[in-house]
TrEMBL record:
<dbReference type="InterPro" id="IPR010920">
    <property type="entry name" value="LSM_dom_sf"/>
</dbReference>
<dbReference type="GO" id="GO:0008381">
    <property type="term" value="F:mechanosensitive monoatomic ion channel activity"/>
</dbReference>
<keyword id="KW-0472">Membrane</keyword>
<feature type="domain" description="Mechanosensitive ion channel MscS">
    <location>
        <begin position="96"/>
        <end position="154"/>
    </location>
</feature>
<protein>
    <recommendedName>
        <fullName>Mechanosensitive ion channel MscS domain-containing protein</fullName>
    </recommendedName>
</protein>
<dbReference type="InterPro" id="IPR016688">
    <property type="entry name" value="MscS-like_plants/fungi"/>
</dbReference>
<dbReference type="InterPro" id="IPR006685">
    <property type="entry name" value="MscS_channel_2nd"/>
</dbReference>
<dbReference type="InterPro" id="IPR023408">
    <property type="entry name" value="MscS_beta-dom_sf"/>
</dbReference>
<keyword id="KW-0406">Ion transport</keyword>
<dbReference type="GO" id="GO:0005886">
    <property type="term" value="C:plasma membrane"/>
</dbReference>
<dbReference type="GO" id="GO:0050982">
    <property type="term" value="P:detection of mechanical stimulus"/>
</dbReference>
<keyword id="KW-0407">Ion channel</keyword>
<dbReference type="GO" id="GO:0006820">
    <property type="term" value="P:monoatomic anion transport"/>
</dbReference>
<dbReference type="Pfam" id="PF00924">
    <property type="entry name" value="MS_channel_2nd"/>
</dbReference>
<keyword id="KW-0812">Transmembrane</keyword>
<keyword id="KW-0813">Transport</keyword>
<comment type="similarity">
    <text>Belongs to the MscS (TC 1.A.23) family.</text>
</comment>
Length: 297
């Protein structure tokens, strides 16, 4: 019995309409180019769908919980509002943040105060975040109301930048060959990179090296940070192979080294002392190409 290792369009047409097949087929990596859905691409799609469904479920559950909390607070606010004006103000600001602004949902990857975190739980008064090292951080929503928040999930395709340093002696032809090789690689990975990119010379540093910046555009935002990092790593490794093929390197400048020799003069013979003084004179530099001589025997 032959076991198929991929799914073709004809297989899907047995269960779906032609329009539906053409809609879902591009969702599987490499399916459009090969006309086949491999086991790995199907597995990745299932995992992605599960993660998205789980995040949506958490978000809906937290929204429902927040509404229930709001109902419980409503009567207390009306009854005791005149006694706790500051508390009422905090609750009102939190309600505005959660239900009106609503800058994120559960599972969203956000950046707050320069720290990248994932939203784990949303309540009326507080939001719980999970930092990159799995540390939980609690933020009052009234405080979050005053802070700028970056949301990766709601962002469009996001860019990336790689800084490169090459030798200043790199020729224009080699530089153009480098740009061409990078373009060929990016265009060969349409599922990973948008064709729009740039390679710019930022500056010449210390007279001996050129600092370049390669700016690229992912075909995704950075919500899935692991996938983003994996694609970037592959690009960096490809750059290394391109440098090796083109012979582009970075060389250190030659450095002047000053040596100080402390010798007890009483232990040196007159002939040796004369030779040592001659080697220390400015005129000695003219004979640097000659074979070195042993001053001390």
């Amino acid at each position: 019995m032959n076991v198929l290792r991929y799914i073709e369009e004809e297989d899907l047409l047995r269960f779906l309409k032609s329009v539906e097949v053409h809609t879902i087929f591009p969702l599987f990596e490499g399916a459009v180019e090969t006309g086949k859905i491999t086991k790995s691409s199907f597995r990745n799609w299932v995992v992605h769908a599960y993660v998205e469904r789980k995040a949506l479920g958490h978000s809906l559950n937290d929204t429902k919980t927040a509404v229930q909390q709001l109902h419980k607070l409503a009567s207390a606010i009306v009854t005791l509002g005149f006694m706790f004006q500051n508390t009422c103000k905090t609750i009102f600001e939190s309600i505005i943040f959660v239900f009106v602004m609503h800058p994120f949902d559960v599972g969203d990857r956000c950046v707050i105060d320069g720290v990248q975190m994932i939203v784990e739980e949303m309540n009326i008064l507080t939001t719980v975040f999970l930092r990159y090292d799995s540390e939980k951080i609690y933020y009052p929503n009234s405080v979050l109301l005053t802070k700028p928040i970056s949301n990766f999930r709601r962002s469009p395709d996001m860019g990336d930048a790689i800084d490169i340093t090459i030798d200043v002696s790199t020729s224009v032809d080699d530089f153009n060959a480098l740009k061409k090789a990078i373009q060929v690689y990016i265009e060969s990975k349409p599922k990973h990179w948008n064709p729009k990119h740039s390679l710019l010379v930022k500056e010449i540093e210390n007279v001996n090296k050129m600092k370049l910046t390669l700016s690229v555009l992912h075909t995704m935002n950075h919500q899935n940070y692991g996938e983003k990092s994996s694609r970037r790593s592959e690009l960096v490794f490809e750059l290394k192979k391109i440098f090796d093929n083109l012979g582009i390197k970075y060389h250190l400048l030659p450095r002047q080294v000053m040596l100080r020799i402390n010798i007890v003069l009483s232990s040196i013979l007159p002939a040796q002392l004369e030779e040592l003084v001659r080697c220390s004179s400015p005129e000695f530099g003219a004979g640097m190409d000659e074979e070195p001589k042993h001053i001390l025997s």
